[in-house]
Amino acid sequence: MQNTCTSPLGCRALRGGSIFTISVAVASLVWLSAVSATVLPAPSITAGRYAVACSNVEQDFSRLRSGEAPSDYWEGNPLAGGAKYVTDLLVSPANALTYKVSVPTRAQLDVFENQGGKQLQYAAIACYPTTTTNARADYLLPDGSRIPKMQRGADAPIIATNVEAADGKWPLIVMSHGLAGSPLGDNYVQVIARLASEGYVVFAPFHADARYSRVKLNNIADYFYVFSQYSEIAEMQAIRPLGLKQGLDYFLSKPEYANAIDADQIAGFGASLGGMAMMLAQGATMTTSWGGAERVIVRDDRYKAIVGYVPFSGYSFQPAFGDSNQGVKRVRVPYLGIGGTADVVAPISRTSQMIEALGGSKYFVTIQDMPHGLRTQDAPELFGWTFAFLKAHLGRSQAERDRFQQIDSFSGNADDRVQIRKTLAWGSRDEMEVVEYFIKSAGKFFITGLPEEVKVLDSFPNEAERTGNRFATHRLDAPIGMPMCRFWANDGKKINTHFYSVIPSDCALLKAQVWARDEGIVMKAQPLLPVSILIFPAPPLQCPDNTVKVFRFFNQNKINHRYLPEPLLQRMVMTADWMPDGAVFCAGAYDR
Questions:
Q1: Which of residues 346 and 214 earns the better pLDDT score?
Q2: Fold type of domain 103-122+160-181+191-422
Q3: Which of 217, 530, 531, 575 lies 20 to 30 angstroms, CA to CA, from 379?
Q4: Which whole-number Å values give the CA distances from 283 to 242, 276, 299, 429, 454, in the listed order?
Q5: Which residues pair with 126 in a beta bridge?
């Protein structure tokens, strides 16, 4: 079909797919392999590819009083004189990783009844790949654990160059430990060191939950405490994602670490309650009361993959993430959950419910007869799945994703089985969030997914107002999707609008207009595809699984385009001056 349109603005001939078709079946876009499943050898639980060093957490244990233990300070246990914290033991707090967490006021977020408006003290440890010439000594903890090649005093980190990366930088893992734990207890320091030895910088805060709630789910008295003091517990849970987000802000503000980190490869690792905290940091809705109140605590878009080890998702009578754990729908980051069939604290039924509700690529692996916590015999499977998942979903390689898709188990000590395996056709790791704004002075709508433009527009909320309309396309470096051109149609008089298309002939037509400024390829998106059914008349073009149609509208009076995803369009009533131009491409839909 030849396009004879000479005025692209509002031209009906530019309806999505009407002048451009692709002879590819929808199913071919789904990354599922027909290759037989693969059993891989489990990695070592102690030795990795790189030597490891860690930040300064040197402590003066002579400050402990009778009956006190280092873990009381690491976990924030309330003792005589009030709650203690690891900073009370640090020899050189100014040379350790310490920061303050700002808590919203109760008026801003009603879950913060007791800590609202406060500045909370936080500390963290970081471990990283180091050079083979780093001769610093290990630091011995009272329980015999070692912190490898720890910095002391004002020592700067000695971070090796990543020879496998063009820029020499490393991916970053943010770790959140379990309830009543710390980065230095319950074998966490060994896990942190093992992750770092595989080629990651690891940042792990001391949450010290006992500063805000004394809950420990060890006996019936603890469960009674949950029932009677839920508001206190909910506040403690909500403080955790604040500590993660603001801790990441702090860590990336320190050039001695940030200069060695690839900020486009940030992952989260959450264990038990840390698994819940990681979901909340991604913008999941949290259950904040017995009455079913739900709140979003914070949202951090910097994560590209999340691992949840025995992640806590609440109980059947009180899900952690809203009704039936549906509050995680907004989380689109690729996710790997690892659970134990003998876990009664984070039962796999709740974990499975949470993972099924996620909005992105998701995987759930269970380990037979594993209870809550980390056992040495389960560590090979934990590290095997974690390393394979992060390699597949932090990088840009489609081949690595295909290889991960084929893994069935690791030949370690435990019986590990894949329960959920769903990879989105368009790939969460490659997602670009497109946001719509209403520009008040011009009275027009504008969409963009370019981070630099979003940042500028968000800095002028009185002029550029978010409408709430958003959807997901692909980044330019995504291995799939069609390039999308953008033109700024502006004749200096009445015409002033932006036009997007994944159809090459559309782009060529606009480029020929003297009043259309070519702003290049700004993203990728899935084109509409023909259905492989031989019927007449031909059925309408369709979108791949897990995507929705995005419709274009043109306002003849305002000379303005709008791009609306199908779910939102179904809830809207458009005025008569908006002319439908049809579906033009496919995108991932956000639930809100």
A1: 346
A2: Rossmann fold (3.40.50)
A3: 217
A4: 11, 11, 4, 16, 18
A5: 203
Distances (CA, A) of 192 to 203, 380, 385: 9, 15, 16
Measured CA to CA in angstroms, residue 538 lies from 20, 472, 503, 547, 551 at distances of 15, 28, 20, 21, 20
Domain-wise residue ranges, the chain: 12-30+429-589, 103-122+160-181+191-422
Q: How far is CA 33 from the centre of its chain?
A: 25
Conformational region of residue 568, where left means phi above 0, alpha means psi within -120 to 50, and beta covers everything else: alpha
With cut-offs at 50, 70 and 90, classify the pLDDT of residue 11.
very low
For the stretch 439-473, pLDDT in tens is: 999 999 999 999 999 999 999 999 999 999 999 99
Q: What is the Cα–Cα distance from 490 to 497, expressed in whole angstroms?
A: 7
Residues 498 and 489 sit within 8 Å (Cβ to Cβ): yes
**Sign of dihedral through CA atoms 69, 74, 76, 81?**
positive
User: Which pLDDT tens digit goes with each residue over 102-154?
Assistant: 999 999 999 999 999 999 999 999 999 999 999 999 999 999 999 999 999 99
Give the count of alpha carbons within 13 A of 548, CB side only.
17
Question: What is the DSSP secondary-structure string of 28-55?
Answer: GGS----SPPEEEPPPPSS--SSEEEE-
Taking only Cα atoms into account, the Rg of the chain, rounded to an integer number of angstroms, comes to 26
Q: What is the pLDDT of residue 382?
A: 95
